[in-house]
Design a protein that fits this description.
Blueprint (H helix, E strand, L loop, with lengths): L1 H29 L15 H12 L1 H12 L3 H32 L6 H33 L3 H27 L1
Helix pairs in contact: 1-5, 1-6, 2-4, 2-6, 3-4, 3-6, 4-5, 5-6
Length: 175
C-alpha cells in the first residue's frame, strides 16, 4: 500500500539524516586528540543502554498489536499499542531528564564534542517524539474502529518504530 511505501521513503530519509550526524561525530572523533575534550564529563552509558533495551522491548507489544489487528482483534491491538506507547513515552521522559542533566554539566558551545553530542541526542529524541505523535494519532483512530486503512497505518508506524529502534542502537553505540 502507498502508506507503507511512503513510510519506507520517510524512514530512509531519516536514517540518512542520522547517518550523516553519526558520520560527523566519527569525523570529529578521528580528528581530535582528546575525546571528549578535557573538562567535559564522560557520558554515562548504563542508563542509555538500559533505556535502549526498554525502547527495543516496546517493539514486542507493537508487533503483537499488528498481528492482533490483522486478525480483526481491535481491542487487543488498541491495548498493545497503548502499552508500547507507554513504554516509549517513559523512555523519552527519562531521556529528556538525562539530556537536561547533561546541559547543566556542559553546553553545546563548550566544544565540537559537546555540539555534536547534543545534535545527535536531540535528533534521536526528536524521532521518538515524532513516533509518539504517530502512536497517539493511531490510538485515537483505533479507538473507534479497525479498517484496512488503519491496519496499513499500524504496519507503517511499526516500520517507523523498527527503524527508530535501530537508529537508537546506533546512537547509543556512538556515545
Amino acid at each position: 500500500p502507498n502508506g507503507w511505501w511512503g513510510m519506507l521513503v520517510f524512514v530512509a530519509a531519516e536514517a540518512t539524516l542520522v547517518g550523516t550526524i553519526v558520520g560527523t561525530y566519527v569525523y570529529l572523533r578521528v580528528n581530535t586528540s582528546a575525546w571528549p575534550p578535557r573538562g567535559t564529563p564522560e557520558p554515562s552509558l548504563a542508563g542509555p543502554i538500559l533505556l535502549t533495551v526498554a525502547l527495543l522491548a516496546s517493539l514486542v507489544p507493537f508487533r503483537t498489536a499488528i498481528q492482533s489487528a490483522r486478525h480483526g482483534e481491535r481491542g487487543a491491538a488498541l491495548a498493545l499499542g497503548a502499552l508500547a506507547t507507554a513504554i516509549q513515552g517513559a523512555y523519552l521522559g527519562v531521556q529528556i531528564h538525562l539530556f537536561v542533566e547533561d546541559l547543566a554539566r556542559f553546553t553545546p558551545q563548550t566544544s565540537a564534542y559537546a555540539s555534536i553530542y547534543y545534535v545527535l541526542l536531540g535528533a534521536a529524541h526528536a524521532h521518538v517524539a515524532l513516533g509518539l505523535l504517530f502512536d497517539l494519532w493511531l490510538l485515537a483512530r483505533l479507538a473507534s474502529r479497525l479498517t484496512p486503512y488503519r491496519l496499513v497505518a499500524l504496519e507503517s508506524i511499526g516500520l517507523y518504530w523498527l527503524v527508530v529502534g535501530g537508529l537508537t542502537v546506533v546512537v547509543t553505540l556512538t556515545e
